[in-house]
Amino acid sequence: MNVESLYTALALFAMTFLLTVVFSHFLIPILRRHRAGQPILEIGPSWHLSKAGTPTLGGLAFIVGIGGALLLYAIYLLLTKESNSLRALSLIFIYGVLCGAIGFFDDYRKLVKKENQGLSAPQKYLLLLLASALFLFASRVALQTDTSIALPFADRSLELGVFYYPLALLYLTGLVNALNLTDGVDGLLSSTVAVVAAFFLLWGYSEGEETAVIVGALLLGATLGFLCFNAHPAKVFMGDTGSLFFGGVVSAVGIVTEHPVLVLLSCGVFVIEAGSVILQVIFFKLSHGKRLFRMAPLHHHFEKCGWSEWRVVAVFSAVGALFSAVAFLGR
């Protein structure tokens, strides 16, 4: 990729950062006025109860921020008649919005019921499954994605044939849910997604993956802009609206670029978080009530061990950077 592409990425980063900060600044008072505060489960860490009432639905700010920057970029591409990547970017954003819409419905139900439970797990998964199936179909039609995937650390692809689609559905829904589970500490998901966004930028630039570069710039601007309000002590939470949107965008990059395994490797922190929940449930059932971790997902276990929220975010972000470095070496 040339220097002009870097300037474009820098401009998109700055635009998304600015839009996210501005929209967050105006959105938070509106959420407070409408008492859109996050209910906190009593089974969670006791010190989280003090966060009850903190405005949620903050994910709307960076969704609009990314959408605004992407719209301006689309107009630029159409004017310059260089719209090669526009289809891919549009599909990624639309899938993210669909996932975010599911999260918004979940958040809305929590706010109406005034409890930290919205959609049931089967309801949420079924909706994500439908959105993912629609995205895979659109990718096949609009981008002619095939049923082979690139393998990290190997200069070859693996043809999955008919098995591609169920595995792709599992990858999409699993990764979206993994990011959702990671959003449990002030600034944790924003910080770890920022690390993955930086990986997208470096990987995309080194391999000429323009889509990864653009998405990385948009995500980095959105996460850093939102961290201005979401870092501990958080003034606003992104809610399922934001976490499912981030999950949709991040996972979609793997499908569009045909590098889902590489993206999954860079998202190792999210995989571990989801894995800790699965292991906790399995161990609880097999041991008749005993727990493998003090609490799951894993970030709550470390909180129960006495780690501050700042330490959890710093360590998890550092581990995320290690996973991204390994993924970069395996590109």
Features:
two-stranded antiparallel ribbon, mainly alpha, 331 residues
Report the uncertain regions: none
Class inferred from helices and paired strands? mainly alpha
CA-based shape: globular
Helix content: over 70%
Order of helices and strands: HHHHEEHHHHHHHH
Which helices and strands occur, and which strands form pairs?
Blueprint: H1 3-33, H2 59-80, H3 86-113, H4 121-143, E1 148-150, E2 157-159, H5 164-182, H6 188-207, H7 210-230, H8 239-257, H9 260-266, H10 268-286, H11 298-304, H12 309-329
Helix pairs in contact: 1-2, 1-7, 2-3, 2-7, 2-8, 3-4, 3-8, 4-5, 5-8, 5-10, 6-7, 6-12, 7-8, 8-9, 9-12
Structure in words:
- The protein is mostly helical.
- The protein has one domain (3-329).
- Helix content is 72%, strand content 2%.
- The chain is built from twelve helices and two strands.
- It has helices at residues 3-33, 59-80, 86-113, 121-143, 164-182, 188-207, 210-230, 239-257, 260-266, 268-286, 298-304, 309-329, and strands spanning 148-150, 157-159.
- Strands 1-2 form a two-stranded antiparallel ribbon.
- A hairpin with a 6-residue loop joins β1 and β2.
- α2 (59-80) packs antiparallel against α7 (210-230), α2 (59-80) packs parallel to α8 (239-257) and α5 packs across α10.
- It is globular.
Short description:
72% of the residues lie in helices and 2% in strands. With 331 residues, the chain is mainly alpha-helical.
